[in-house]
């Protein structure tokens, strides 16, 4: 039984989590964005990781996810929101639903806060008061907290979340 730990990462958050999971589970580590093609037929289990963009997997991860079928699957992602937020819960629910529609059995999942691309933070800072995405004190606090993640505690939690897939 072979396991693939796949991930898409923009700022390094998701890669860091994927590497921590790989450290405990072994298997093959695959960078969705920069890796060569991988034949999913060679794997019984696929751990699928991505960074959240517009309420779901980023574009490249979404294309990869559509290829995962009839596998035992683990899901993880990083995002700038709090892991217990409604936004994070919605992303997880939609991702699991999609994977299950493709005949997969989702065995484990994990969500981790991660630093936000500084370019995005700068863009929010420039938005006017009439924008729903403008930088507020609350948003600034969240961006500052996100910059501290993923931390060592997050990585241990990620490893623990996928122990059932060993």
Offer a concise description of the structure.
The chain is α/β, with parallel strands linked by helices.
Chart the SSEs and their pairings.
Layout: E1 3-7, H1 13-25, E2 28-31, E3 45-53, E4 56-57, H2 59-65, E5 72-79, H3 86-101, E6 105-113, H4 118-126, H5 137-146, H6 152-161
Determine the oligomeric state from the structure.
single chain
Cα distance spanning the termini: 10 Å
The overall pLDDT average reads: 96
- What is the C-alpha radius of gyration, as a whole number of Å? 16 Å
How many E strands? 6
Q: Please report the number of helical segments.
A: 6
Largest sheet data:
6 strands, mixed
Shape: globular
Order of SSEs: EHEEEHEHEHHH
Strand content: 15-25%
Indicate the percent of residues in helices: 25-40%
Uncertain residue segments: none
Quickly give the structural class.
alpha/beta
């Amino acid at each position: 039984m072979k396991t693939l730990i796949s991930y898409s990462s923009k700022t390094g958050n998701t890669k860091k989590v994927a590497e921590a999971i790989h450290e405990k589970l072994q298997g093959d580590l695959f960078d969705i964005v920069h890796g060569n093609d991988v034949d999913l037929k060679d794997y019984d289990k696929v751990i699928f990781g991505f960074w959240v963009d517009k309420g779901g997997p980023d574009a490249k991860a979404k294309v990869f996810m559509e290829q995962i079928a009839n596998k035992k699957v683990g899901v993880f992602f990083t995002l700038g929101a709090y892991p217990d937020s409604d936004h994070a819960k919605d992303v997880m629910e939609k991702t699991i639903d999609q994977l299950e529609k493709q005949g997969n059995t989702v065995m484990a999942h994990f969500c981790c806060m991660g630093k936000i691309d500084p370019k995005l933070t700068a863009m929010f800072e420039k938005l006017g008061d009439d924008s729903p995405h403008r930088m507020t004190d609350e948003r600034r606090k969240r961006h500052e907290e996100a910059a501290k993640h993923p931390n060592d505690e997050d990585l241990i939690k990620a490893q623990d979340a996928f122990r059932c897939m060993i």
